[in-house]
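Z., the sequence and structure:
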Amino acid sequence: QVQLVESGGGLVQVGGSLRLSCVTSGLTFRKSAMSWYRQAPQAPGPERDWVATIASDGGTSTYADSVLGRFRISRDNRKNTVYLQMDGLKLEDTAAYYCKASTPVDYWGQGTQVTVSS
């Protein structure tokens, strides 16, 4: 059974930092590209916005323009875990954050809430 469990969300002030973690089990992590997505509370529909992706070997990372230079995705293939370091948080970063494993079948975690306050 594949499981992805996010953690690390919380309440932080503008300009602050958080580090999200996503621990996986039941899949071949080292062969899976990993991504982070988010869904803002005011989003009109169920679609989640892509935030960042890291290749299975960790060699390539890509970011949405809105987070480029502030967020950093990383992974530890020994721990089957992907991380999202978020610095310089803005009000508009408030969202539920989800990790996704592409194996290439997609698996999602249950999400962790990030709230940025002024």
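The chain is about 0% helix and 55% strand. The chain has a mean pLDDT of 96.

Let me know what you think.
H.
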